[in-house]
Amino acid sequence: MNLQQLAAHDGREGRKAYIAVNGTIYDVTDSPRWKNGLHLPDHQAGQDLSEELAAAPHVRSVVERFPVIGTLEEEVQQKTGGGKLTVGVVICAVIAALVLFLLL
Predict the structure, then answer these.
(1) Do the Cβ atoms of 45 and 34 come closer than 8 Å?
(2) Cβ pair 7, 48 in contact under 8 A
(3) Residues 41-64 pLDDT 10s
(4) Residue 32 Cα distances to 20, 29, 55, 91, angstroms
(5) So what's the pLDDT on residue 13?
(6) Considering only CA atoms, which of 39, 55, 35 is closest in space to residue 47?
(7) Which candidate, 20, 36, 80, 85, has a CA 20 to 30 Å from the CA of 48?
(8) pLDDT for 77
(9) DSSP state, 85?
(10) How far, CA to CA in Å, does 22 sit from each of 44, 48, 74, 87, 104?
């Protein structure tokens, strides 16, 4: 499951409530502490809460009691220079057209 798919499980309007912690996705739907996908004061289901859990007042073993749904897929962000290449080609074409115009 990726982050976009996880976000669809926010516990609102009858949807399942899933959270991700350190790459593992847990189902917190049936927990009274996650009513409507919200764990007070401000943790919403449907998110990766790994960083928040590091500062939580309880230990990680509390989260590990919930059923495991699967793993969170890492999203690979591709950095391409496609946009820069296109701009460069356009600029070169304009310069070439100007040179030809001035020479003819």
Answers:
(1) yes
(2) no
(3) 888 999 998 888 877 767 677 888
(4) 18, 8, 21, 61
(5) 94
(6) 39
(7) 80
(8) 46
(9) H
(10) 16, 8, 11, 40, 66
pTM over 0.85: no
d(CA 20, CA 48): 4
Going from N- to C-terminal start, the domains of the chain cover: 3-71
Q: What's the chain's Rg over C-alpha atoms?
A: 24
Amino acid at 46: G
Backbone angles phi and psi of 65, in degrees to 5: -80, -20
User: For residues 73 and 82, what is the distance between their CA atoms, to the nearest angstrom?
Assistant: 26
